[in-house]
Design brief:
The protein has 181 residues and is of the alpha+beta class. 60% of the residues lie in helices and 19% in strands. A hairpin with a 3-residue loop joins β1 and β2. This is HLH. One of its GO terms (cellular component) is RNA polymerase II transcription regulator complex.
């Protein structure tokens, strides 16, 4: 009976020793996964401090990953590849430029947020192409804003609608990318 107690005690000691060796190897592996600057400081630190440092590093990495996923989603949406229902402010407005013999009519439909900036940008681009603004208005209906800019052609009129449309698309796309970043 005495021999069985001694044997059981030795088995428990061996099991505990193996568990400590295994845990030490796992801690070493965890520390090897930390960035070089953090692990140099961790060599002299106590085990609880090293674990806290690893936890903080993992949390910071998770936050960075979430920010990057959100940014990727927004950039893909801006490029027209993905959908983003939660960021309706970041939608590219639907635009149409109608070419009349006397001038142009620009119609842009956008989300209600930031509609004044989009409206002023549309007016600026039409004027930049050498057109004289006759009327400019916008109306907010539900969650959409309708912008209408009518202008009188001062130039040749050939390709004016295309130039204005491309200018509008470029300006709004650049604005969306700036908002995402």
């Amino acid at each position: 009976m005495e021999a069985s107690r001694v044997s059981a005690r030795l088995d428990r000691k061996t099991v505990e020793k193996n568990r400590r060796i295994h845990m030490k190897a796992l801690y070493a592996k965890l520390l090897s996964l930390l960035p070089a600057s953090a692990s140099k400081e961790s060599v002299a630190a106590t085990l609880p401090n090293q674990l806290d440092e690893a936890i903080n590093y993992i949390k910071a990495t998770q936050e960075t990953l979430e920010r990057m996923k959100k940014r990727k989603k927004q950039l893909m949406w801006c490029a027209g590849i993905g959908k983003d229902e939660e960021n309706t402010c970041l939608r590219m407005p639907k635009m149409e430029v109608q070419d009349f013999s006397s001038g142009l009519r620009v119609i842009a439909i956008s989300s209600t947020c930031d509609h004044q900036l989009k409206f002023s940008e549309a007016v600026r681009i039409v004027e930049a192409e050498g057109n004289e603004i006759i009327t400019a208005s916008y109306a907010v209906i539900g969650d959409a804003t309708f912008h209408t800019v009518e202008s009188m052609a001062t130039g040749s009129g050939i390709g004016e609608a295309d130039k204005v449309l491309e200018g509008l698309k470029y300006a709004f796309r650049a604005k969306l990318i700036r908002e995402v970043m």
